[in-house]
Amino acid sequence: MSNEVKELYNQRLGRYQAAIALEPTDRVPLAFATNYFAEKISGYTYQQIMYDPQIWAQMEVDFAKKYPEVDTFRTNISWAPPWDITNHRLWKVPGRDLPPTSLQQFNEQEWMKADEYRMFIEDPAGYRMNVYLPRILGEFSERGSTRSYVAFLKSGIAMGMVAAINRERVTRLKNEAGMPVPVMGGFTAPFDFLSDAYRGFNGIMRDMFRQPDNVLEACEVILEFQLTRALATADPQKQLPIFIATHKPCFLSPKQFDTFYWPTFKKGVMKLIEAGYKFRVFLEGNWGPHWHHMAEFPKGTVLCDIDNEADIFKAKSDFGFQQCITGGIPTDMLILGSPEEVRERVKLLCETVGKDGGWIPNGPGHIPQDTRPENFRALIDAVMEYGRYHDGPPPAPKTAPAGTGYVKFPEAGVVTPWEVIKAENGWTIPGDEQLIKQWWDRFERMAYSWLLSQ
């Protein structure tokens, strides 16, 4: 990375970090957690991008260079072959199930039955291996077959390839375009994970009335491996926030939210904040009845993407004094409006919610794929004109913050502990046992994580 590109990277990251922390910076950042517009204008189909890692990486570098004013963005897609390897039924894939130009789609159903809560709670790994995965992974429906074993082998190989692909993308953006990514790692609210992947929307709505204790206990179980997942995937330098997409709060009453959603969500997020991490949270739908809770987190630790269904001005007054917010540009304006309308909207937002910092322009948590290019350019130009706080340089990036003290996280799960395999084989270990054990434990944890996250 040249000195010029390195300086550009540091300026962008420093500006983004300062906005999240509600600290002074030179101008309003252009920091998009999700930017489907980048994929759409690339000239490639979603199928090409999701199946060819080189196209995916090059498309991102090209976008960063085309819009050098942008401070950070990401493409919210995944490498598709791992879904094919297992015949993953939770996902419909462009070019395979959908037109090549379509986004991937999530297939939400009651994959866990209403009477299976205790099975999951008492043995989550066993339940997933023996009951859940045969339902959602077509290649594992005939358990014990050679085909199912080969599918699992291929999936394990793919895990390593996914990690390498993502590292290459991040590295190319940094070294070739001086562009940081907006988030690293992921955490899902336990209630969302239970609803999305297990019970489905209809199932979880019934369960809150029919078996509320099981819902609460299942959320506590899920929290354990969500914390493990977040730690394994987060930025080790703690410079970039962990991403959370919320799904069900907009359908919950305040009482339901406070009872079922908030306790484990807050517990998980606070534990990671105490360890020095920050978050970027997409408040999907109208979070208005619940978003006062965001003020419970320490100031400047949670960047909140506000959806179109909510009022950006009310968000600013309700909790924007405590956390940075993004949003305020309606979807229909970005897609159907004129550059003049976008420009006036951004000007208004810069002069109101962004007047003293703590705001980043955005659409409904993302830049829609059908955004008119001239409207995206108008958004950028308006920020450059109306979103400047001072003429000096942006602050330098900050190093990893120290945690507030010792934070104990749950132990990463394993299926077969080292002591078990050692005893079964009668190994006396004449050499250095730790050299052997560390790798056994590492692969056990990786396998357990894969098992609990599919």
TrEMBL record:
Gene3D superfamilies found in the cross-reference section: 3.20.20.210
UniProt-listed GO biological process terms: porphyrin-containing compound biosynthetic process
Residues covered by the Uroporphyrinogen decarboxylase (URO-D) domain: 168-386
Transmembrane segments: none
One annotated GO molecular function: uroporphyrinogen decarboxylase activity
Pfam families: URO-D
InterPro entries recorded: Methanogen_methyltrans, UROD/MetE-like_sf, Uroporphyrinogen_deCOase
Name the UniProt record assigns to this protein: Uroporphyrinogen decarboxylase (URO-D)
Annotated source species: Neomoorella glycerini
Classification of source organism: Bacteria, Bacillati, Bacillota, Clostridia, Neomoorellales
